[in-house]
């Protein structure tokens, strides 16, 4: 979100407290809704209600839920996802819960939708109508987004086997309302998400941009007769970073993929076709297949493209990013995840499982006879993404290109299990980290970072998955590219299979099941450490108990550690629980099957 919006947040905080309250609390310090005060001079307060919806977007920060999967472990024994993975996940102890957060956000958004028509945002009546329209669109879009996250984290089969979603709340809850509401069906929740996204799409511009004199024809006709000044005032570049029509289309694609997935779908291929078409609609706004191929230079390393990051403006997006939070200059990720010799805490340790998922440079999986994989030199001639995303033994890192030694008998604290902050798997995280950050206390430096909400690569992989299920590897439906085309572009961008026309992909494109596994693996690699793996395994009905493996390297010998950490999940844990406290309070709420 851009700096202007953050400044508004500060202003709201000052407005709500006042100087006297800093010394002695007021008798009643809760600001009440007061339509008589919704004047342009005080419109920051109702806008602050809307900002509560933005502040509760679950993807605002990194979850690193990979720690509860076969992709990573953590040396932080207090990590919530580590506790989940090792048998401590319960309905009253759920670090992944979004129930309170998302329903609180929906309450704020429903308040905003109830009050927005009463607010005079600006004195110009036409511009005021445009502001009202825009803010309604934002609220509908954010409500859909929060509902999507509620379904991802809490939808599941009730004790009777019915696929349930969550209660649908379309107006603010007051103290006199009935809070004891049943869960709506999963399908009804999806219908509400689509309705809200329809409302957002029709009210919002595709993107926020200023329209110049002489380009009045670019003003969307849906806004009626407005001047350039009025349009730019309500929908101009100032508001970049807020919810848009483009984002609404992307959220629709995300939600549709969830609904089409095996854990939530009874085999209806129409749902897969819908998911593919919705993803294609987003990609086509960015050049279709070229959304992958045209940003090859930045699509893989969007988090560390120095020049791109240095020049990024508030609200603007690099080519790979559809929506993101605001950039910040810090060293938090590096402090948490750099190896100890670089003054980091080495928190997230990729597993051998994930390392083995990267193919060879020629595109073959390492267990394929044609791969030419050498277990005695396991990192040679591998998919270039391996060393981009994972810090392996002998690789260089940090501002001084320090060689990192993760061997079992290494002499530094980077060695396997040397100290509390050492790697537990033989690997350290590299993805997301800027190697030009210096953590040395005598010369520490920060660098720019941002967190994507949605990347085009995510949407491309969603298309590939859905298109393959709907029409097979080479089918296109009404689109102009197939699942095969997307995966070929993704792998070529990474430099995989370029020397042999990606013979493995060519052999896979004739089989839907083989292509499914390849697509899932590409999603695993491209989106690793971005918060997808935990939920992907669940929506696929995939194996959840694969132990996290590591490697012990000593005197040049690589020994696989078969169970650095076990993964303790029951079958019913493919669906997250309804919070136990809510089940105790409200008899109408039905818990997901298996959870107490």
Task: Give an account of the 3D structure.
This protein has 596 residues and is mainly alpha-helical. The chain has 3 domains: 39-72 and 87-268 and 577-585, Serine Threonine Protein Phosphatase 5, Tetratricopeptide repeat (Alpha Horseshoe); 269-327 and 451-530, no CATH class; 333-449 and 533-565, no CATH class. Helices cover 40% and strands 8% of the residues. The chain has 21 helices and 14 strands. It has helices at 3-23, 44-55, 80-88, 99-115, 125-154, 186-203, 228-235, 245-260, 269-284, 290-293, 296-299, 306-311, 332-337, 352-357, 385-389, 456-471, 483-494, 503-508, 512-526, 533-539, 580-585, and strands spanning 72-74, 156-157, 163-164, 321-324, 328-330, 348-350, 390-391, 396-397, 402-403, 428-429, 447-449, 452-455, 548-554, 557-565. A two-stranded antiparallel ribbon has the order 1-6. A hairpin with a 4-residue loop joins strand 8 and strand 9. Helix 2 (44-55) runs parallel beside helix 5 (125-154), helix 5 runs parallel beside helix 7 and helix 16 runs antiparallel to helix 17. It is globular, with a radius of gyration of 25 Å. The two termini are 39 Å apart. The model is unreliable at 1-29 (pLDDT under 50). Belongs to the SusD family. It is found in: Cell outer membrane.
């Amino acid at each position: 979100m851009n700096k202007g919006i953050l400044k508004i947040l500060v202003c709201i905080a000052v407005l709500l407290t006042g100087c006297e309250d800093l010394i002695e609390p007021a008798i009643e310090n809760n600001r009440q809704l007061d339509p008589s005060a919704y004047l342009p001079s005080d419109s920051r307060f109702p806008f602050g209600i809307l900002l509560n919806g933005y502040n509760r977007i679950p993807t605002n920060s990194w979850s690193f839920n990979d720690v509860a999967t076969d992709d990573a472990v953590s040396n932080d024994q207090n990590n919530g996802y580590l506790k989940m993975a090792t048998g401590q996940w319960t309905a009253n102890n759920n670090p992944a819960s979004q129930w309170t957060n998302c329903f609180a956000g929906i309450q704020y958004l429903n308040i905003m939708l109830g009050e927005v028509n009463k607010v005079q945002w600006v004195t110009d009546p036409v511009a005021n109508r445009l502001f009202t329209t825009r803010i309604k669109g934002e609220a509908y879009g954010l409500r859909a987004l929060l509902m999507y996250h509620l379904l991802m984290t809490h939808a599941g089969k009730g004790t009777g086997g019915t696929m349930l979603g969550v209660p649908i709340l379309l107006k603010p809850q007051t103290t006199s309302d009935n809070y004891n509401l049943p869960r709506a069906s999963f399908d009804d929740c999806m219908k509400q998400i689509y309705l809200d996204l329809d409302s957002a799409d029709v009210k919002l511009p595709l993107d926020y941009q200023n329209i110049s004199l002489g380009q009045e024809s670019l003003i969307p006709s849906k806004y009626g007769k407005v001047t350039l000044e009025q349009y730019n005032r309500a929908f101009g570049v100032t508001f970049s970073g807020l919810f848009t029509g483009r984002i609404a289309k992307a959220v629709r694609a995300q939600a549709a993929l969830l609904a089409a997935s095996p854990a939530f779908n009874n085999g209806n291929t129409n749902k897969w076709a819908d998911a593919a078409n919705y993803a294609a609609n987003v990609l086509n706004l960015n050049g279709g297949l070229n959304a992958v191929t045209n940003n090859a230079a930045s699509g893989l390393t969007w988090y560390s493209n120095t020049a791109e990051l240095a020049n990024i403006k508030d609200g603007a997006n690099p080519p790979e990013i559809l929506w993101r939070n605001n950039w910040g200059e810090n060293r938090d990720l590096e402090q948490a995840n750099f190896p100890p010799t670089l003054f980091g805490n080495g928190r997230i340790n990729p597993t051998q499982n994930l390392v083995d998922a990267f193919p060879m440079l020629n595109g073959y999986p390492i267990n394929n006879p044609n791969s030419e994989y050498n277990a005695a030199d396991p990192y040679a001639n591998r998919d270039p993404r391996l060393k981009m995303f994972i810090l392996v033994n002998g690789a260089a890192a940090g501002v001084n290109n320090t060689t990192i030694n993760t061997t079992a008998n290494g002499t530094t604290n980077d060695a396997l299990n040397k100290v509390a902050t050492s790697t537990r798997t033989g690997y350290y995280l590299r993805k997301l980290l800027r190697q030009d950050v210096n953590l040395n206390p005598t010369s520490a430096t920060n660098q720019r970072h941002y967190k994507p909400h949605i990347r085009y690569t995510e949407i491309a992989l969603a298309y590939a998955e859905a298109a393959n299920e709907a029409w097979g590897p080479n089918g296109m439906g009404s689109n102009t590219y197939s699942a095969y085309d997307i995966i070929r572009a993704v792998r070529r961008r990474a430099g995989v299979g370029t020397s042999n026309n990606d013979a493995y992909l060519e052999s896979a494109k004739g089989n839907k099941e083989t292509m499914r596994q390849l697509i899932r693996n590409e999603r695993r690699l491209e989106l690793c450490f971005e918060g997808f793996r935990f939920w992907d395994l669940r929506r696929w009905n995939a194996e959840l108990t694969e132990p996290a493996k590591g490697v012990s390297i000593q005197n040049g010998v690589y020994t696989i550690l078969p169970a650095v950490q076990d993964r303790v999940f029951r079958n019913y844990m493919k669906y997250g629980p309804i919070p136990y406290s809510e089940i105790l309070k409200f008899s109408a709420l039905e818990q997901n099957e298996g959870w107490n």
